[in-house]
Amino acid sequence: MEIQIAVAKTKKYGSLESGDTLEIIERPTGGLSAVMADAQLSGKEGKALSSMVVRKVISLLAEGVRDGAASRAASDHLFTERGGGQPVCLNILSADLETNTIVISRNNPTPMFIAQRDRVEVLNAESEAIGASRSVKPTISEIPLEPNTLVVMYTDGLLKAGALTSESVDICTLLESFLEEQDPSPQLIADTILAQAIRLDQNRPSEDMSLVVMRVVPQATDQIRRMCVSMPVLKNQND
Predict the structure, then answer these.
(1) For range 213-223, the mean pLDDT
(2) What is the pTM of this model?
(3) Are 6 and 16 in contact (CB under 8 A)?
(4) CATH number, position 87
């Protein structure tokens, strides 16, 4: 098998910086984790807040702390630092080779999608952002790590896309169409979903938008691990 992860994100139109932060880390017991935080704020203040949360989670995962425990520790840290006044939506998506499972930790009311065995499932159980109180716990889901599995997680900016025209991104239908294709890459899936969300906002995103796609394919092409990152740098960040 081969685990593939792709990311696509954009900032709110007119904002200098996105308030979303995304990082990917190799797990000490084998596998990969993608950590996504949405500070519910745009610009430098939002980026500083979401970065603080992601750094905390990444450091704990690197020490072998379980995903749920890392979420709770990050929530306590945020509550201590900000007094409960600035909650942050947090997701951890892990391919855990020690348990041979995909572990999904949600502190985010925004749903997630899983395509497995030619069926698309929505994870939309009630979930609370971290940092609001001392009692915040993540919603944990665990599924077998097996070929032909696809998981999509994203921030609420993508969910709100098209609100002004009463439209929305139909992720479930998009995933079903991708399942009918021969071999769609996770980057193609991520780029397509994000492009549709941006289009619904008339190419002026009303919120920060971030998207992670994890795909498990049956065969590894070779024994080489790869990562590719692309970031636009504009002379005028308001363009």
Answers:
(1) 88
(2) 0.92
(3) no
(4) 3.60.40.10
